[in-house]
Write a structure and sequence with these properties.
Number of helices: 21
CATH topology of the domain at 373-588: Rossmann fold
Shape: globular
Number of strands: 26
CATH class of the domain at 373-588: Alpha Beta
Bound molecules: alpha-D-glucopyranose
Distance between the termini: 60 Å
């Protein structure tokens, strides 16, 4: 009997029969041969998109393997027709008819592009983030997919790393909240609904701690940092019900993650109680031989299954070696059964045994055309994600007196860069450029001049090729740009990076402005002081001259399909900026790794009275603070914080503290503010960060409006993993701090008693 028929018999809800779906799975496992079980643990790349070095040439007949029951999932296969064809072979031609999973990198949208994840995180707007992910899932499931390889939740403090664009920044609390929102967006309330899909928490673990941020490099991380910084987002994703976890390319304490029992079995599956399955990252099992950790593929297969790796993405090592290992008695079949049980449970939860074609529904393909509602939500998300870093002369919003605007920069006219690097199946060049947005939103009587000014890559860059910046020192566009600057009341200078300078495989040793951009900016500023810089980048850019001289700066990252419209609405004041940095912007690459939640050290400050004394924690050649701090972001209005109050100055372990503060919009614009709460543990058994985000609220204030904002703090907000690796709070004194960023804070002290 096929798995589908069996499922319908056992779990057919119409019969009203109360059944144990686990019986169905155990019954199915009981029918499976060892080869079919290993087939469920094998994922083939269909290579419609290339997201890694395919281990196998495409001479193998994937469909033959599916018919043999040797494939449980595919990736990078797209469209309801192709997925239906593959599913049909699995369901109708293989002996047990077990349906396939179809996975894909749905990272910041599928057809409608939303802001890149780091930008989305800067919105601090969990509703926007969940809605954006919901739309991505709606579109991706209309293309036959039922599994997203997202959200990525790697904590990172290193702008040299290309994938800093893909996460949610440097802080475990914010990354936890954002990741949980993304999991809910993908999975919805019912995973068996045709517009919901499995989510993936990745990359487990510590992939953001690569040495020197060199892609695929080894990692160095303390137990303390791993447990207290890296782990919390994965726990949040598991608590949110994430279906799968993808492991990392890197090693952890000298053992590749794929073979790391401490990480995958002790921590993930036991300590955090993860009941889903672990998928490898692209061919990580076979790469353990290259890593010089496994003697050969058979050794790699052994080490991976022992460490709890459940599914092999594309390396085929499980397919070609696990059966022999079990038959030799080297691997117990119950280990295989555990992996298969986890995989089949997801297929059951997705409703695939009930209807294996529910995601291959051609009637939903209209969702892949331009859906107005999707683009309006993408516009809202984009407006909420940009961060106003500086506005010294209030050049923004653009004044009515400005009659001629000079737009300078190749990126201003770029319809491709705003789409970001993990752009799934959106059409190239389909983004709204800044120039197009301005032409739509500035008053018709305003003249808009444009000059490209500088060059970055000559050809539009691609996902798999290095960006060619060989022409970026070209100055032939300077003359035209300087003429534009001369004639303009206001210059909007758009600068940053090509979008494929960030993303996977894009580590850089330089995090300033490449090519001739800065040289031109200085010349323009020498002619016209009314310059607004609009940044388009995937990593924080370290460029002190820019930040210290240009009066207004909007950090826009890559804002997706509606980028140009969002930026134009922000620049014209139709929308008031409300983003806050989800990661620090360094003054210099020399400060990296840098984050706000650093520890105090034993010599944190200068010695009073002796400014030349060198024995304190500082650089001789650079201020040790960031250019812009975590949580920083301005508005066209101003907010005043006052009256920080605690309901008590002492709480016991089972009590909670109520913190309230008054926030007033003291300016003339309505606006949104992210009220942030931090704590500092004044004395603890292991050194703790000088401050840790433990709460935030993004609220709307009318001009002149005042609100009282309250937070509740309990022992779990004060707890941490100590040297004994036990998560607990310790009695003692704490400071609680509240403000609109991580630096300007009102503070109050309280005590936690045993
Ligand atoms: C890539 C990425 C991973 C992605 C996978 C499948 O190498 O590291 O994040 O999900 O392969 O495309």
């Amino acid at each position: 009997m096929s798995a589908i028929k069996a499922a319908n018999t056992i779990i057919d809800s119409s019969s009203g029969e109360e059944t144990n779906t686990q019986d169905f799975i155990e019954d199915l496992i009981g029918k499976m041969t060892l080869s079919e079980k290993i087939g469920q643990m094998t994922q083939y790349d269909a290579s419609w998109d290339v997201t890694g070095p395919p281990v196998q040439k495409d001479d193998i007949d994937r469909y033959e393997k599916i018919a043999e029951g040797r494939v449980g999932a595919m990736l990078n296969i797209l469209g309801t027709e192709a997925t239906r064809e593959a599913q049909k072979i699995a369901v109708e031609n293989s002996r047990l008819g077990i349906p396939l999973l179809f996975g894909y990198d749905v990272v910041h949208g599928y057809k409608t592009m939303f802001p890149i994840p780091i930008a989305d995180a800067c919105s601090w707007d969990l509703t926007h983030i969940e809605n954006a992910t919901r739309i991505a899932a709606t579109e991706a499931t209309a293309a036959g997919l039922n599994w997203a390889f997202a959200p990525m939740m790697d904590i990172s403090r290193d702008a040299r790393w290309g994938r800093v664009m893909e996460g949610a920044g440097e802080d475990p609390y914010l990354v936890s909240k954002v990741s949980a929102a993304r999991v809910k967006g993908f999975q919805g309330e019912d995973l068996s609904k045709p517009d919901t899909m499995a989510a993936t928490a990745k990359h487990f673990a510590a992939y953001g701690f690569l040495n020197a941020a060199l892609e695929y490099n080894t990692t160095e991380i303390s137990d303390n940092t791993f447990l207290n910084q890296v782990l919390p987002p994965f726990k949040a994703a598991i608590d949110a019900g994430v279906s799968t976890v993808m492991n990392a390319f890197s090693d952890f304490n000298g053992i590749p993650v794929t073979a790391n029992s401490y990480l995958q079995r002790d921590i993930l599956k036991k300590e955090l109680g993860f009941k889903g399955f672990i998928i490898t990252d692209y061919s990580t099992i076979s790469e353990m031989v290259v890593h010089q950790y496994a003697k050969d593929n058979k050794d790699a297969a052994y080490k991976a299954i022992i460490a709890g790796t459940d599914m092999d993405m594309e390396s085929r090592v499980y397919e070609n070696n696990l059966e022999a290992l079990v038959n030799e008695g080297a691997v117990e079949e119950k280990m295989i059964d555990d992996a298969v049980r986890r995989i089949l449970t997801l297929k059951l939860n997705l409703g695939l045994f009930d209807d294996p074609y529910r995601y291959c529904d051609e009637s939903r393909s209209y969702l892949l055309d331009h859906v107005e509602d999707h683009h309006s939500k993408a516009l809202e998300a984009a407006k909420s994600s940009a961060v106003l870093l500086k506005n010294d002369k209030n050049l923004l919003p653009i004044r009515k007196s400005v009659k001629t605007i000079g737009v300078i920069g190749k990126l201003a006219d770029d319809k491709d860069a705003p789409l970001g690097s993990w752009r799934a199946r959106t059409e190239a060049q389909s983004g709204v450029s800044i120039l197009e947005g301005l032409q739509k939103h500035v008053p018709s009587e305003t003249e808009i001049l444009f000059a490209k000014g500088y060059t970055l890559s000559v050809e539009p860059p691609t996902f798999t090729q290095e960006v060619d910046l060989s022409q970026s020192d070209d100055e032939s566009g300077f003359t035209e740009a300087l003429e534009v600057a001369e004639r303009s009341d206001l210059v909007l200078f758009v600068l940053g990076e090509e979008c494929f300078q960030t993303g996977e495989g894009r580590s850089q040793t330089f995090i300033g402005l490449k090519g001739a951009q800065l040289k031109l900016l200085k010349k323009v500023y020498a002619i016209n002081k009314n310059v607004v810089a609009i940044m388009m980048n995937g990593r924080p850019i370290a460029e002190p001259w820019l930040y210290e001289n240009i009066p207004s700066i909007l950090e826009s990252w890559y804002l997706g399909s509606q980028s140009g419209n969002a930026i134009a609405e922000l620049l014209t004041g139709k929308c008031n900026p409300s983003g806050k940095l989800a990661l620090s912007i360094p003054r210099s690459i020399g400060q990296i790794p840098i984050s706000y939640n650093h520890t105090r050290t034993g010599r944190p400050d200068p010695i009073p009275g002796d400014p030349n004394f060198v024995f304190w924690s500082h650089y001789s050649d650079c201020d040790k603070t960031p250019q812009y701090a975590f949580g920083h972001g301005l508005s066209y209005t101003t907010f005043e914080y006052s009256n920080l109050k605690l309901n008590t100055d002492t709480i016991s372990m089972d009590e909670s503290l109520t913190v309230s503060i008054e926030v007033e919009n003291t300016g003339s614009y309505d606006g949104e503010e992210v009220v942030q709460l931090y704590i500092n543990d004044l004395y603890s058994s292991t050194i703790r960060p000088v401050k840790e985000l433990k709460g935030f609220e993004k609220l709307h204030f009318k001009a002149g409006e005042k609100k009282t904002v309250t937070f509740t703090i309990g022992w779990k907000d004060l707890a941490f993993y100590g040297a004994d690796r036990i998560f607990k709070a310790e009695p003692g004194e704490f400071d609680v701090m509240v403000g609109g960023n991580s630096e300007d804070l009102l503070s109050a002290r309280f005590e936690l008693t045993a």
